[in-house]
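User: I'm writing a tutorial on reading structure tokens. Could you give me a worked example: one chain, its sequence, then its tokens, then a sentence or two explaining what the tokens reveal?
Assistant: Sure. Here is the example chain.
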Amino acid sequence: MPEIHVNETPFAVDQNTTLFRLRDAVKPDADILILNGAVASGDIPLSEGDCVSLIRRGEVPSEDELEALMAARHTPGVHQKVKTATVGIAGLGGLGSAIATALARVGIGKLIVADFDVVEPSNLNRQHYFVDQIGVPKTEATVSNLRKINPYVDVEAHCVKLMPETVFPLFGDVDVMIEAFDGAEQKAMLLQAFTAARPDVPFIGASGMAGYASGEMIGIKKLGPKLYIVGDLETGARPGCGLMAPRVGIAAHMQANLALRLIVDGIR
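And here are its predicted structure tokens:
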């Protein structure tokens, strides 16, 4: 019997099975049929190795279905590590909102996020929010947006201004800690408070991603056994060199990707 993949899961079919017969047997209400990456407009005989996606327009996949899709994309061993990890994100601005979005898309098991601010009109030039979320607390807006991306990621959101004495209770159980603040004082406070309490946990900070200079200047600097800083370490916001979506996004995704590397491979 030929073996194909249906919604990323191995599936044995008869020799004379067609696309429509498969749909009628597996998911009769599917109104979009994708065969080997292209939308199919008619009935087609299926062959060994074909990949079929059966979709009902607007339907949210079950947790098991989404899990299978992600495992197929990431490979099962990688996905298993990702889905059992917890990442902390302090700050949900241009960096933090993008980091949270990226990690939710890859199916991180749990996010613990904190920010005390609300979405402002000026945030929309680089932050992952929408016009109708202006005035909404960033924690609330982030949870709402992530639910639309991956409703099965556990998001623990704290609408608080972090202080040295509250950093460790909030982020005590994370596997990786990510700093995503704007201000130098906040960055220094978080670094000192967290690393004093959890020197065994990787800490990923950011410094220098303003303007529109070459993205190739943004890199990763290892400043200690568990301390990493992403950015060019010098380009701060100033007149004529503001914070803009492309360069901030590069830094944010480098932070998210570094977190994944630490979770999956435990890079040194």
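What the tokens reveal: The helical segments are 19-26, 63-74, 76-83, 94-105, 138-149, 164-171, 184-197, 245-264. Residues 76-264 form a domain with the Rossmann fold fold (CATH 3.40.50.720).
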